[in-house]
Amino acid sequence: xxxxxxxNDKEQCLREYSPLVKRLAHLMMAKLPSSVQIEDIIQAxxxxxxxxxxxxxEFHGAQFETFATQRIRGAMLDELRAADWLPRALRRxxxxxxxxxxxxxxxxxxxxxxxxxxxxxxxxxxxxxxxxQVSSGAQLVYYEDLHGEGEEDFFERFEIGDDASPLAxxxxxRFKAELARAIGNLPERERMVMGMIYEQEMNLRxxxxxxxxxxxxxxxxxxxxxxxxxxxMKGC
Length: 236
What we know:
Elements: E1 2-3, E2 6-7, H1 10-29, H2 38-55, H3 64-81, H4 88-108, H5 114-121, H6 125-135, H7 154-157, H8 166-184, H9 188-198, H10 204-211, H11 215-233
Antiparallel strand pairs: 1-2
């Protein structure tokens, strides 16, 4: 299947590794809003797989699946970067939720529950939960977060390369430590959801089975957890 210039049979490559692309797409969808179509993410991943097949000869030190996973994820992120996939109104709503959570956290001295957040936002509990459901993880990365100063973007700013300076590595360690602490302070069910998504790489259906809830409820818990974390991590 392999030759000096990459994978010999691209069609065989697609057949063999398309399940990997679909698995990565479903994992990524757990962290994205409902406005993103999984078919678009899968298509981008397939292009990443083909790119990996053509480039594999340049990276003999890695197993193909490991290398392909990196290229597939990169292609999916490129697809997200290419369009403003988060509606303006949704960004506004999620920032309001984030601000409300921070305000109540300081006032109460503990993480506010959903009823308290809804009351602070002056909406019903059902309306608040619908806001969370519609976001479906949207606040994980706001579109404007993707662009920094100059040519550097969000994904590059938060990527630590092999040639990173000792100071950059130290700052990354500190950031991760603060993030771990913030996750540890989440309400139990939200903490469990974050662990199952980001550590165990479980999809929404699998998490719902563990928690005995539906996928929409998992999305709500994830959205609320990330809103808490965004507020906590500002300035880290």
